[in-house]
Amino acid sequence: QVWDSFGRALYNSQPHEYPITSIAWALDGELFAVGSFNTLRLCDKTGWSYALEKPNTGSIFTISWSIDGTQLAGACGNGHVVFAHVVEQRWEWKNFEITLIKRRTMKVHNVTNDAVDLLEFRDRVIKASLNYGYLVVSTSLQCYVFSTKNWNTPLIFDLKEGTVSLILQAERHFLLVDGGGLYLYSYEGRLISSPKYPGMRTDILNAQTVSLSNDTLAVKDKADEKVIFIFEALSGKPLGDGKPLTHKTEIVEIALDQKGLTNERKIAFIDKNRDLFITSVKRFGKEQKIVKIGTMVQSLAWNDTSNILCGIQDSRFTVWYYPNTVYVDKDLLPKTLYEKDASEFSKNPQLVSFVGNQITIRRADGSLVHLHISPYPAILHEYVSAARWEDGVRLCRFVKDQTLWACLAAMAVANKDMTTAEIAYAAIGEIDKVQYINSIKDLPSKESRMAHMLLFSGSTQEAETLLLQSGLVYQAIQVNINLYNWERALDLAVKHRTHVDTVLAYRQKFLEDFGKKETNQRFLQYAEGLEVDWNKIKAKIEMEIAKERERAAASPAVRA
Predict the structure, then answer these.
(1) Alpha-carbon distance 263 to 278, whole Å?
(2) Domain that holds residue 471
């Protein structure tokens, strides 16, 4: 039986032919070996069996792995020592299939034209990774970087430590993890940075606890499992204000998105309750909210070419076509999802990769299942990142899919493109939002429009700050009145010595509509001896709007 660190059962095997006499984990925790009478079995960390050998050795009483996890030795009942080497590992990416056929030889098979190449190495292969058009191979002394366009001339450089325990790739660079630390290299073999953090232990890092993108590196802390350290990839320094990201419960798995601007980089993570959260990694001063977007999530993966997230959620396979929707219009998130029944993947399936529109899932018995999702959301992401809004609208009209329209609506709001947002919201029947967007478009100044866009996304504090910084005090007061934040509206009016009567008038009208009497002492205090004259108030409001219009009309001239 196999359990995870929280005591959940991951795997339960059938009874073996003979009693099990030994068991040993490889140092990187990816494999374990099981010894029995005339039997040596190699298993994956999730329990399923890679290979079964039947050496004529009697019972294998003790198994010991080499430090690099490529070979093991077993002490046998007949007095012999059995040595075994791990071969036949396979890596796949797009049309390439690579197999380690001997300890120092790899076979590359291009399935589109059936071409086969053999790659020979000086020392035994320890780790390899194939992604983004490059194959990175570490041997006991060197690192080889092959381009999939040319297998004959690899880039080779010597390793400092030797025993690489993990290789992670991003589009522009790759990460090597060994006993000495974390090393980030470009595909030309140049060392870019070597991030460090307090209490760093590299021997326990794996693909679930480290994540790499073009500009960011995230590492889950082992000493405190609620903490994620986030580094700038190019300098190796902690990102933003230097503080790590802290969650309220222990974190199990982390993943950075791969595309888009650096200041919009997102990290998704699963905690020990199996809840899926997303947050931004740029952390200057103001904390970006950590938002929950899924429950009972077993495994997750970001797409390699666009910021689409997929996960196995309880009995459903879910794709979040635009996870950023939670920061723009939370109600819209369920409309941007694709869900499929996941019962065919059996218990505890794991996501292996998400390349293009193909997702590879490893079932509990070790078999691989390939899934395809719609290519249109990825095309929409591409259009939006190039600000080709008309093409995005055209694509949605061609596909006639509500999910795609919902994604376009959220993308348009995030990028402040009101015209596209209006078309997209109308297409999914969100009439109230269309009306609100229309009212935003009629506002006189750019600052007001920006503030109301922030309000639309639920960021009331930011909207108020923007208006106050722009000197639009009345508009900031009115925003609070509209949201029934009476106390805050009065605070602003008193502080700026303007529109106290406006706040009191609206408050009085609000209470009269509900047939209530004023009980708040502060409002009673300011209402004493103050006559509410609606004509005066309306004239003041009109003056404010006229002033804002004049300002908006004058500002382009000032800029010129």
Answers:
(1) 15
(2) 443-559
* DSSP string across 416-464: T-HHHHHHHHHHTT-HHHHHHHHHHHT-SSHHHHHHHHHHHTT-HHHHH
Residue 20 CB partners (closer than 8 Å, separation 6+):
34, 35, 36
The answer to whether residues 254 and 247 touch, using CB atoms and an 8 Å cutoff, is: no
Q: Residue 548 domain-assigned?
A: yes
- Residue 67, CA atoms < 13 Å, CB-side half-sphere: 8
Angle of CA points 411, 417, 421, to nearest 5°: 65
Which tens digits make up the pLDDT trace of 216-258? Answer: 999 998 888 999 999 999 999 998 777 888 999 999 999 999 9
List Cα–Cα distances, 302 to 27, 136, 528, in angstroms: 27, 21, 61
The structure tokens listed for 188 are: 């030309």
Domain count, the chain: 2
- pTM of the predicted model as reported, rounded to 2 decimal places: 0.86
Task: Determine the 3-state secondary structure of 226 from DSSP.
Answer: coil
Question: Is 81 a domain residue?
Answer: yes
Contact 254, 290 (CB under 8 A): no
**Interatomic CA distance for residues 219 and 214, integer angstroms:** 15
Kindly tell me the sign of the dihedral angle through the C-alpha atoms of 48, 81, 99, 303.
positive
Question: CB neighbours (10 Å) of residue 435?
Answer: 12
